[in-house]
Amino acid sequence: MIRRRRIVVIAILFSLPLVLFFAGAAGGFRVNLTPSYPLGLWRITRLHRDIRIGDRIFICPPLTPAFELARKHGYLRRGLCPGWLSPLIKTVVALPGQDIEIGTWVLIDGRTLPNSKVQAKDGAGRALKPYAGGIVPAGDLFLHSPFKGSYDSRYFGPVPANGVLGLATPVITFTP
Q1: DSSP-assigned states of every residue in 144-165
Q2: Is 0.90 surpassed by the pTM of this model?
Q3: Helix H or strand E segment including 30
Q4: Alpha helices by DSSP H, the chain
């Protein structure tokens, strides 16, 4: 009888993290462990309107060579998006039809985007190839994070808006 109780208790203790993980994912909760935005617990809030400039969003990255390389280099973690990629938390800074120029800084419609200096190398010293620039295509978004080392549209360019999961709402976060 005591042995059976121990087995039940051990089984519960081992399955509790899985239950919490799936319950959190179903409730739209995600843990951010990247420095692009504050660390901690975030919630995906459904969007019941068009996406606007300034919206901080969760988005599944498309399965492109740029994101395959990002995964290989460790810029992206594993997650529940297609290709087992983790969703990104980024801010929408340009919408379809807006002109993007990439030089030392990002310019959107001729205006410098704050905190958008383009880095020549990543934290490991590998060369970073910036996006060539151009008009944001219909159905795409240009994304940014103010974190200096962020892997965002400065490097991978516009991404399809159909990957948006919702607004990124901080629940319990902190900046280290």
Answers
A1: E-SSTT--SHHHH--EEGGGEE
A2: no
A3: strand 29-32
A4: 2-26, 65-73, 153-156
Measured CA to CA, the distance from residue 170 to residue 135 in angstroms comes to 31
Domains of the chain plus CATH, in order, are 1-174 (2.10.109.10)
The DSSP secondary-structure symbol of 42 reads E
Question: Which pLDDT score, from 0 to 100, does residue 23 have?
Answer: 42
Alpha-carbon distance of 86 to 77, in angstroms, equals 5
Q: Is 12 helix (H, G, I), strand (E, B) or coil?
A: helix
DSSP state for residue 121 in the 8-state scheme? B
Please write the tens of the pLDDT for every residue from 45-77: 999 999 999 999 999 999 999 999 899 999 988
CB atoms within 10 A of CB 64: 14
Q: Residue 89 forms beta bridges with which residues? A: 58
Nearest alpha carbon to residue 140 among 103, 91, 92: 92
List 167's β-bridge partners, or say none: 45, 57
Report d(CA 55, CA 90) in Å as an integer: 8
